[in-house]
Amino acid sequence: MSVAVRPAPMTIAEFLAWEETQELRWEFGGFAPQAMTGGTVARDTIQANLVAVLNARLRGTPCRARGSNLKIEVAGSIRYPDAFVTCTPLDPRATVGREPVVVFEVLSSSTARTDRVEKMREYWDTPSIRRYVLIEQDAVSATSHAREAGRWTGRVLWAGDVIALPEIGIEIPLEDLYEGLDPEALRAPA
After folding, report:
1. Mean pLDDT across 103-112
2. Which keywords appear in this protein's UniProt record, sorted alphabetically (predicted)?
């Protein structure tokens, strides 16, 4: 199927109106639409586990985890993170999540540069975001970046570590995100 992409540049409002008429999902990096592609079983498993674990631990709080079907507006861009947590009530008809506090991306070879550079800059420039977690899909590992005293710090996590999320009052054992996946198979060459 061929999809006509509207000529750039666009504003966020123009992008959101345009995207409503599209069959596929698109991100907006502040200039032009960028098509979203599919993922792997590992990525899907990690994302599903992440949202389930977050919501189980957030039960009874004002915070709620959302998956990649809901987009967020960050620093002049529209993104579909793999998961994010917001503690602000959302209109049930909303298509854009507001005021994310914690954002998660599951890295793949095709998205790692965008996640580590472009999105990181956008997330860091969004005042409501207090933590950005990059999760590896090829190994039990993650990097957790936190906003502390106006600066960003990062910590690499490995098997046996816990992702501390004091911004939302919970912790998650890293292995919980990989439930249903064989760690040895993740590292095996494709």
Report:
1. 89
2. Endonuclease, Hydrolase, Nuclease
